[in-house]
Amino acid sequence: MNLIDINSTTKNEKENVSSEMNIIKSKNEKIFSQEATTETNIDMQINQPKKIAKFKIPQNLQKTFRFIIILTIIGIILFFCGLVKAIVNRNFFEGIFFWILAILVLIPGGFYSFQFIKAKRAKTLFQRQEILDKIPKLENKLF
After folding, report:
1. Could you give the number of structural domains in the chain?
2. Is 61 helix (H, G, I), strand (E, B) or coil?
3. Contact between 78 and 101 (Cβ < 8 Å)
4. What distance in Å separates the CA atoms of residue 138 and residue 33, rounded to the nearest whole number?
5. What is the extent of the structural domain holding 82?
6. Rounded to whole angstroms, what are the CA distances from 20 to 13, 25, 42, 53?
7. 40 pLDDT band (50/70/90 cuts)?
């Protein structure tokens, strides 16, 4: 082998090595870009709330829900009875007994009705379950 052959061989080897390096760089760039895209997708999935299923009242809270609706309806009826009694008799104090009863019945009925509405509007299942866990369950056989 002469000097020209050695130079040409090293040039060919250098070209081969540089082409192989370029191939390796492009593969690494693809891998890193795929990893970055995957990380971005994972971040988007974690940070964005998923659509949650249609709200159904849990089986263990159905009695409570019915009782709350009954309390709210009775409270509204009592309030209007007191209003009618006060208007008919033209005396504010005639309806006060009904209004006191209405307040006593509407406070728990309205509060827990609002809790059920908050649970229905919750954006994630975790928030919904957290709200529903705070609502007491009726175990009585009356309802």
Report:
1. 2
2. helix
3. yes
4. 55
5. 59-133
6. 10, 9, 33, 52
7. low
